[in-house]
Amino acid sequence: MFSIADLEQRLAALGANAAHRQRVMRHWVQALPLTQGRRQLEHYLPHALLAALPALMAELEGLATLVESHPGADGSARLLVRLGDGQTVESVLLPRDGLCVSSQVGCAVGCQFCMTGRDGLIRQVTSAEIVAQVALARRQRAVKKVVFMGMGEPSHNLEAVMEAIEVLGTVGNIGHKNLVFSTVGDPRVFERLARGPVKPALALSLHTTKDALRRELLPRAPRLTPADIVDAGERYARETGYPIQYQWTLLDGVNDGDDELDAIVTLLKGKYGVLNMIPYNSVPELPFQRPDWDKARDIARRLHQRGVLTKLRDSAGQDVDGGCGQLRARAAQPRKR
Ligand code: SF4
């Protein structure tokens, strides 16, 4: 298990200067074979580094290896990924060259509707393991957008996620606004993201406008009210020029009432953001239900008419154990199917 900083130190010990390190990292993150640009590498890199490169690249590939791939009807594919120590996380290949990555094994926030939250935090995913998920996905297909919406709460592994974002936004060749940091809302995030050399777009998980209900649904999220979260989000959006993506998992009979819709209009109308409504995927282990699609469409339409830019989305690959943490949970149990 090592981080990007550890990798850079190892490269430096092999005689690499900053430009050499960037060259090697680019090969890794962009999943280029060593045969590609071989002459240039031979001409450019110090001998000790060149000699060590095949073993080093194999070691980097070993940071994230594919266990299972489950293609969905929508063009997505859910990947169960093994990390170097045998722990597993999920990545999701999204339609239109996107990838959703995991930043933790398990998660400490404990959202009531999430399978990942049930295990608590098992361990952090290192910055190199985050980048390795992208390199692994790129060996399957192009990746032009990376969203940090897989297992884990990125703000609880903030420095590692920011280190990975910096690599992806530079040598990883991914546009900064196509890197999406997703969080339940943590005061440290708003300050830290604005300071980095690569400023990602921001997704904020709102799920309800009611403070008490939010505390129930997201029991260990930082104590920010929905209004605090939107205020901080609005400042970040104006500073970066990227709209905030407000996430709303639609739970039947829980957060889909008219009172919520009125409060959403008060909270979000005129804000620089978009509301993504994602109907929940029911799982037998958890007590929440997926709302009817027509009802969800009606809610999105009514919000849109009242001035809140609202998009109704289905979570990718929802036909293949689609909720976050479900593949991992299934892999840990004997299969019933
Ligand atoms: Fe953690 Fe996200 Fe699951 Fe909540 S929804 S428990 S923040 S992984």
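^ iron/sulfur cluster complex. The first helix runs from residue 4 to 13. The chain has a mean pLDDT of 92.
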